[in-house]
Amino acid sequence: MTMSRNSRCLPITLIMISLLAAGCWDAKDIDQRSFVMGVAFDLNDTDDTLVMTVEIPVLTSFATKTQSSSDARSLIAATTGTSVTQMATRFETRTWREQFFGHTQCIIIGEDLAREGILPIIDYFDRNPRIDRRLTLFIAQGEAGQIFHVKNPIESLISIALNQILNTLTNTTRVVKRSFQESLRDLESNGDTVLPRVRGTETEVVIAGGALIKDYKFVAWLGENETRAVAFLYNSISGGVITVNVDNILYTYALRSASTSIKPMLKDGLLSFKIKVRSEGDIIEAFHKGPGGTTNFDLPKIEAKLNQVVEEEIRHLLAKLQDFKADPIGFDRLVYRHNPKYWNEHAADWKEQVWPQARFEITAEFNIRRTGILEQVTVYESKE
Amino acid sequence: MKARNKLLTQEVTIIIVNMILGVGTIGLPSSLAKTAGPDGIICYLAAVALYFVGTVLIIWLAQRFPNQGLADYSSYLLGSVLGFVFNLVFALYMISVVSAVVRRFAGITKIFLLQRTPLEAIIISMLFAASFLTRNGLEPIARSCQILLYIFFIPFLVTPFFIPVFDLGEFLPLFQSDFVTIAKGAFNAIFALAGIEVMLVLGSHAENPRGLMRPALLGISIVSALILVLIVLAFGSLSVSQTAKLTDPVFEMIKFIPVPFSIFERIDIFIFTVWIASTYSTIVIGLFTASHHLAEMFNLDSGKGFVWPICVAVYFMSLIPGNEFEVTEYSNVLVFMWLFLVYGIVPLLLIISLFRKPPDPGRQKRSSKQKRRKQKKQTRETTGGAVS
Amino acid sequence: MQLTKRIHHNIKFLQEQFNNSTDLVVRRFNINIPGIREIAGALVFFDGLISNQLITDAVLDPILHETSEFQQPIDADLLTFLKESILTDAEHSETNDADKVLLAIMMGEAALLIDGYNTALTISVKGWQHRSIESPQSEGVIRGPRDSFVEAINRNMMLIRRRLRDPNLVFERIQIGTRGQNDVVIAYIKDIANKNLVAEVRKRLEKVDLDVILDSGYIEQLIEDDWWSPFNTVQDTERPDEVVAGLVEGRVAILVDNSPFALLAPTTINSQMLSPEDYYVRWPAANFVRLIRFIASFVALVTPSLYISLVSFHPEMIPTQLALSIAASREGLPFPSFIEALVMELSLELLREAGIRLPGPIGQTIGIVGGLVIGDAAVSAGIVSPIMVIVVAMTAIAGFIIPTYTLSFGLRITRFFLMIAASFLGLYGLTLGMLILLGHLATLTSFGVSYLSPWAPLNLQDIRDSVIRFPWHALRIRPRYTRTNDPTRRPQGPPGKKKQNRGKQ
Predict the structure, then answer these.
(1) pLDDT band at C193 (very low <50, low <70, confident <90, very high)
(2) Is omega for the bond preceding C457 within 30 degrees of 0, making it cis?
(3) Which among C228, C333, C337 has the least Cβ separation from residue A5?
(4) For chain A, what are the domain ranges?
(5) Is B5 contained in some domain?
(6) Do B251 and A4 touch (CB under 8 A)?
(7) How far is A338 from chain B (nearest CA, A)?
(8) Side-chain-side CA neighbours of residue C305 (13 Å)
(9) Domain presence at residue B6
(10) What is the tens place of the pLDDT at every residue in A3-42?
């Protein structure tokens, strides 16, 4: 009995001693890391290298007691290099704290760099197991590094603000909400996607519109209405408003839900897609513009108008995508899933030949459920 | 009161679930997606079907010799020389399975949790924790596994409800792959599923060694269902193409889950701890099987003394592969060995046992036990009681 | 040794045996029987062990007065006469074995020696000072009985018997301790408790070989299954209701003289997590409290180690805003988080221990001074971070929720083990530590019962009274883990039914 007990003690002691002697390799306290909240990449103007700009919070300014508004709340540092790792490690000569990407909220890629390709940049983050896959990949209009230099009096960290803006959006459909994970998912399948666009002013950052990525390269901006069409097709709309003009009254329709179904149809070797958008929502505003109008809601008419607007938007977007020979929505995946035979025959020339020729049958079905607590639209007609 | 050292019927199921669920599980969706795309599901189902057949064979064999371990009846069926060689190979196989599991585990842990910690430290600490329990015997192992089983269910119950994106379309198109691809995928799936062979050794320790079939089949049904859930979730939420690209898609899938109320930023590391626990139980059962098998080969009452030497062997064997790709190659060899064992040797033993009727189990056992005791007494006397 | 017929010899013998101890009282007297003669007698006893009142009223007065008033000549011999006719108020027994006399005197009886007789009469006139019954110190409840065991074993037995008027309730008394000769009582209900269990308890108690048993803690440590473990495999309690509940479940209780703590065996981690109050309050409240208690014990166990592993190994797990504020609060601290946590946890244990040792009024101030003043000063001096203070406070509060003092000791020790594990290998180390802990708990048995019962092996019947407590009408079966002889508590049907039927009749 005692022998076996002693033999149990021995290895414990040995292992404890060996661990104590060797130390804890990975232990690095939270205050010894510098949290890279956001990373931005740009092309260097002078040579072929990249510029990496990071936003790092100044920890002391986050301490609850000693808060002075005059202090800078973040440090924006830039470095140049040829690869992401190279640039990240260059920071080591400037700070003893370890660059820590575990809380990175956003990756912003400058317009110029994105035109050359985003694949080399995202590989580093895709490979790193510590990266939070819910971060957002942005394409900046202009220089990406400048986004962090926006001086917003309310927001202390631009990166957090960007992520928060995107995640709390419920009433606008003019942005594609795509997390890093979802963007990767798109890119992985055919190299095309739409990423949110960000631009900075003096004191504000604005997220609106989208950047069309084709074969990991930025090709064109999408306007806000086009982005809305993308959001419909991505099926990622949770809310938002659409305003239509019916009889000189601007009706604002608030989406409560929207769902899009896309079905590939193959008839006589001709490929077409049946796109159906269904939505439910309320009228939340009737903005009277000019004299005339009606005192009663003409719901079918408004719905028809809504359908028409959305159908038109989607048609317009698809035409644009076909022009660019880009397929960020993943129509190819649908063909592969539902018509694998056809896909196998045409996989090679999908983007060049088949996709631009594809036809669409777009139907929108908008249903207005409520009109607020007013049943009628009051129109003041001036007696002149 | 002395430990009964018997497995209750529920514990047979639990041991099987714990043995199978482990290190290979999280990499499985990736290898399936890589080989067969959406047809990975089919590969998996094929592997499960194959696996059920193997289970039936193994349990059948174990049930024919209800009071004997593998070491006893294989040498009875194959003759003492051939039997000894086979038993030695089986012990080596078990040790190499544990080594492969340990190595794979250490590799993944290093990537995800402890980037700077040397592999050796991870392996040693794991082996230490595992040997601690292994030395305590079968009953504590079964009880630990039971508690661990409750913990395993948590991620399976929780994650499906929080997966933010799930696209059923990812499972299309089905039935596009040819037979060779399916077979290849099934082969890959076997590594994640292997483990039922421990029942060859542990079957005799069941409370009801003749009624093994039901708990065993229940066990592998549970495991294959759980793994199926993982595959479906990974395919549906990550997409097949991404699943194929990632080495351990299950963690990436969980990383993506938003935590309700944001108590923690993410829960992937907690799921990781569950995975550590499942690997731990695999290692413990593997170690116990190996040590117990060796003990039965040399007619010892307990394999306790073998645990430390086996751990040392496992440690050195697990450091043989130079990188993670070699680990995969080594585990492929093990899968071949598994296939050979389950579909080659087990049926062979079964056929021989049909001709050489199993001896009256009670008498055989008793006489052999008496012999053993005598031998043991003698050794004790000669060595002066140093054997404990 | 035998007594002789000469009283002086006997007295001298006893005095020598007790080494002329100063508390040994020898009261010599003459028994005057009219017309016959005067016979020398003596009472030998220890001062303080006997009741003076009793010895005067029940022994000395009758012997001295009633015998002298007795008019008829005595035909039988004197001792028998005394025994049968005079000493009718006190329990007594006759022996000529000197060792028995010695033992009886030591146990608080008085030995009556009479010249000419080689036997002594040991008279039970026990009566020593003892503490009155007070409310329990370590297992207080709001709802439920407030009495607790005291040092006197007879009173403890009374407290049990008063609750359990069952003829099958058995108290078996044995003496343990080569010098102390202390009373140890095994209590069980004969037709409920498993015979093997009782035999095993008896066997283990008989094996105990110590010179003196000062508390049931001695017995607890000597009969437990695994002396190596930080966890106790014999439960202790100072609540008689808890003991009776245990007896009815089929467990065996051990009472030790001079100890206000009774032992219960077998025990599981589950049975130690339950408070008797859980059964006195209504079941929704009981379930709520139990859930909190189980969560709290987990919190008390892992919070510091989780803090260490998250803060120094995996900060990506902490919500971004919280991570920033933790990092900011740790900015400029001189120690790594492990040392910080260790120092704080150790000082917490320090405060705890000091609070017990210090005299009452100071003990309370220590809590305030230590907790508030030192904690606050340490934070403002920049030695520890405020978050760490919160973590430590949480651990401390959660640790006090565990109803059994002994079990909370085990968890306290394990907490440090987990902290060390976490400081080496982060969450991986913590996981391994938890797995080793689990392996250890799975190995533990208490009198052959799995320590993890009813969760491993799973017993659906016993689950009804574990983390959850079913309402009373669903608790019809005694716990299975005790392997009772009588598995059902009562027949089928709701418990209120019997009464209703009676009312109708």
Answers:
(1) very high
(2) yes
(3) C228
(4) 30-61+72-222, 235-384
(5) no
(6) no
(7) 6
(8) 29
(9) no
(10) 455 555 666 666 666 666 556 778 888 888 888 999 999 9
Q: Please state the rounded mean pLDDT for residues A144-161.
A: 86
Q: Mark out chain A residues that contact chain C at CB-CB < 8 A.
A: 5, 8, 16, 19, 24, 26-31, 33, 35, 37, 57, 59-64, 100, 102-103, 105, 130, 132, 160
Write the CB contacts of B285 (distance below 8 Å, at least 6 apart in sequence).
B15, B18, B19, B141, B145, B195, B198
pLDDT > 80? residue C483: yes
Q: Cβ–Cβ contacts within 10 Å for residue B53, how many?
A: 11
Scanning every residue of chain B, which has its alpha carbon at the shortest distance from the alpha carbon of C429?
Answer: B125
State residue C113 phi and psi, 5-degree precision: -110, 140
Q: Which residue, among C49, C28, C30, has the nearest Cα to C123 in the 3D structure?
A: C49
DSSP, collapsed to helix, strand or coil, labels residue C72 as coil
Tell me if chain C has a CB within 8 Å of the CB of B148: yes
Q: Is there a domain that residue B3 lies in?
A: no
The answer to whether residues A210 and A227 touch, using CB atoms and an 8 Å cutoff, is yes
Chain C residues near residue A64 by CB distance under 8 angstroms:
325, 328-329
CA–CA separation, B101 vs B23, rounded Å? 6
Same domain, B341 and B369: no
* AA identity, residue C272: Q
Distance from CA of C438 to the nearest CA of B (A): 6
Q: CA angle, A180 as apex, A191 and A116 as ends, to 5°? A: 45
Nearest chain B alpha carbon to A9:
B132
How high is the pLDDT of residue B1?
36
CA distance B255 to chain A (A): 7
Quote the tokens at residue B172: 């299309």
CA C151 to chain CA centroid, nearest Å: 10
Q: Which residue has the tokens 């990781």?
A: B272
Contact across the interface for B169 and A3, Cβ inside 8 Å: no
Cα separation, C112 vs C120, in Å, equals 6
User: Into which CATH architecture does domain A235-384 fall?
Assistant: 2-Layer Sandwich (3.30)
A25–B266: do the CB atoms touch at under 8 Å?
no
Q: Give strand pairing partners of A278.
A: A259, A365
- A252 alpha carbon, distance to own chain's centre: 25
B234 & B365 share domain: no
Are B208 and B242 part of one and the same domain? Answer: yes
CA distance C213 to chain B (A): 25
Q: Which residues of A touch C425 (CB under 8 A)?
A: 24, 26
- Inside any domain, residue B245: yes
- Chain A to chain C, count of Cβ pairs less than 8 Å apart? 78
Residue A317 is predicted with a pLDDT of 92
Q: Give the ipTM.
A: 0.89
- The domain segmentation of chain C, as residue ranges, is 7-124, 153-267, 281-450
B-C Cβ pairs (cutoff 8 Å, strict): 103
Alpha-helical runs (H) found in C107-223:
153-163, 195-207, 216-223
Chain A positions touching B255 (Cβ under 8 A) are 132-134
Cβ-Cβ contacts under 8 Å, A334 against chain B: 169
Residue A294's pLDDT band, with cuts at 50, 70 and 90, is low
For B118, which of A25, A185, A189 is closest by C-beta distance? A25
Cβ-based contacts of B125 with chain A (< 8 Å): 15, 19
Residues of A in contact with C329 (CB under 8 A): 63-64
CB distance from B276 to chain C under 8 Å? Answer: yes
Q: What is the pTM of this model?
A: 0.89
Contacts of A122 (CB under 8 A, 6+ apart): A107, A137, A184, A187
Residues B222 and B298 in one domain: yes
Q: At what angle do helices B304-318 and B80-112 cross, to 10 degrees?
A: 60
Torsion of CA A20, A22, A26, A31, to 10 degrees: 60
The boundaries of the domain holding residue B377 are: 358-388
**Count: domains in chain B:** 2
Q: Are residues B366 and B340 in the same domain?
A: no
